[in-house]
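Posting for a labmate who doesn't have an account.
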Amino acid sequence: MKKLLAGVTALVTVGATGYFGVSTATADDTPIGGPPTPGAPGDQTAFALGGAHVLGIPYDEYIRQEGAQWFPGQQREIVRYPAGQVQGHVLERLFPGIGKFDENFPGLGLDGPSVGESVDVGVNNLEAA
């Protein structure tokens, strides 16, 4: 009985592996024509959200270049919101007073706003834009 069970198990395993493992994976065909053309004239404005920044990285330039190849000619406007790094808000809750380091070393990100605070300010800035 054990030999029969072992034989059936081996047969099922080899059969399933052969059935699912033999075929070759294929990808979709490459689209022809490159990137899609913008659906609107170039005088439209694309809004990009600002966000958390780390010192030494030119985020404003990155945000301005975002989508430039797909939608050339569109104006870009950065919508600011006071985002901090997540660990900053958490660290202030765990270690009250750690935010003073942020006053001495601005941009360190040890005490950032909460998600709710960021959303409140960001929504108002987006509506104003």
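Reply:
Got it, the structure tokens are right above this. The first strand starts at residue 45 and ends at 49.
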